[in-house]
User: Fold this.
Amino acid sequence: MQKSTSADTSVETLKSTHQGSETVQMRIKNTNSHHDRLSQTKSMILTDAGKVTEPISRHRRNHSQHVLKEVIPPLEQLMVEKEGYLQKAKIADGGKKLRKNWSTSWIVLSSQKIEFHKESKQQALPNMKTGHKPESVDLRGAQIEWAKEKSSRKNVFQITTASGNEFLLQSDIDFIILDWFHAIKNAIDRLPKDPSYPLRKLELFKIQRSSSTELLSHYDGDSKEQKPEHRKSLMFRLHHSASDTSDKNRVKSRLKKFITRRPSLKTLQEKGLIKDQIFGSHLHTVCEREHSTVPRFVKQCIEAVEKRGLDVDGIYRVSGNLATIQKLRFIVNQEEKLNLDDSQWEDIHVVTGALKMFFRELPEPLFPYSFFELFVEAIKKQDNNARIEALKSLVQKLPLPNRDTMKVLFGHLNKIVAKASRNLMSTQSLGIVFGPTLLRAENEMGNMAIHMVYQNQIAELMLSEYNKIFNAEED
Assistant:
């Protein structure tokens, strides 16, 4: 049955069979015109299995779509790989240093970038502001490294982007920050090192898509002579580039001369231009300088805490003001006299924070690296008396500055535990605070979570069995 329309159109269908495949062509003919006009052609190949196979097209648009697939990553590459809360501080923007301000951020890691949100997406939905966009970090060409020297906090690593932005990420929980470090590092390693790679691909795509001879001549100088103003601009850029290179070479040459002629650290110290440091120096170096086996600063801090901090809630657990702690650190490194009874050190948490920082910044911890595995093996013993005897034997073998400083410190912490009903600091609490600070492996990237358990247990046992391990009953 056929229907007549105002266009009076008839359809001819031609069918042909070739090697088991059918090719169907539809030709639409308009009877109003004197000549046949091909207005639409569709073709498809039906295989024996009945599946439709896309024909290979040489059309320009299909070719450009193929190029776009290389420029724009597929959807699965932009999927979220990891997300969660971390402490974040941005310390540089485009190479310009910024003041370090820590804040809690919801971190979202995908294969190519990191996004920093103020809160998780689920929590942000009810309060979503129009146009609000999270800070995004392109991981192409970025670098990641541990950055202990950038902050007094533990477990800090730094991300430096190709554009000169620098971020610090931190968590107090060791296995969480270690997991984030490896996840981000793996994402960076999978990406091309040159962040301009996709941009160059996009420019190539534009050249292939464009029919403008002006654009093509910009990229192909042999096919067409450039305009005079283009030549002038190019000559200026070449001259400017050569001038920059010459300036850089002169600066490098001067720096090399300065470095080779600069005085040694020992000379500067002898002239009094650089004073001996307390923080960051080896324990035995500080003790030799002071002709003692326990650093003077450690004694001063312990005396101040026992004088006005034994009853303070959360002593050694509560953090003091970091800026004030850094000020105290600077004074200790630059001046010989220190009065912790001064009003500026009124907050006892500043004193305890500085003492913990001193032990944390020791190049080698109070429990030397060479003794770490021995202490771990001792704490693994099943019999409690055997554990105590093993620890006692190891303590006796320690270098004198380490042994005496350890005895003074744990004796002080025992006085803290004695007032646990007021300061709420038990043996276990102090073990958690001081374990990772005083005892750590030389290579912390191995079994960080397992080491943390042993660190706490060793510190706890040293506290609970202080008299037996250090022969304090005989003193």
